[in-house]
Design brief:
The chain has 121 residues and is mainly alpha-helical. The chain is 73% helix and 0% strand. It contains six helices and no strands. Helix 1 packs across helix 3.
């Protein structure tokens, strides 16, 4: 989990502090993964009509458009969360990395939960 969070922070912000924790191969692997997932989403919706984008299989289900909006909003919220974390003072060598990781994950899920409540579908 720590490597994933470091990778995300490095890719989003390019912080030298985080970049030192990743090897060039790890960073490249992360960049490729993000590019592949982005390309996969674009390919999945390419050519869909407006009606297809807005179609909901059931009243309590999201449409493709709503799902894409959710992804964009969640990504923005995550970016803001990590940007705020990057403004925090640097960690001391004796910090408890597992505790910090758990806090970051909890903050992320709290943010996602709040975003879902403030943007109901």
């Amino acid at each position: 989990m720590k490597k994933v969070l470091l990778l995300v922070c490095t890719l989003l912000f390019g912080s030298p502090a985080f970049a030192q924790s990743l090897t060039p191969a790890e960073r490249e692997k992360g960049v490729r993964y993000l590019e592949q997932t982005r390309d996969g989403v674009v390919a999945a919706v390419k050519g869909l009509s407006g009606a297809q984008m807005k179609f909901k299989p059931a009243p309590d289900r999201w449409s493709v458009a709503e799902t894409l909006e959710h992804i964009a909003l969640a990504e923005n919220d995550a970016h803001n969360l990590f940007a705020q974390a990057m403004k925090s003072p640097a960690a001391t060598p004796d910090r408890d990395a597992a505790k910090v990781d758990a806090m970051i994950v909890a903050m992320f899920w709290y943010s996602v939960s709040n975003m879902e409540q403030s943007h109901p579908k």
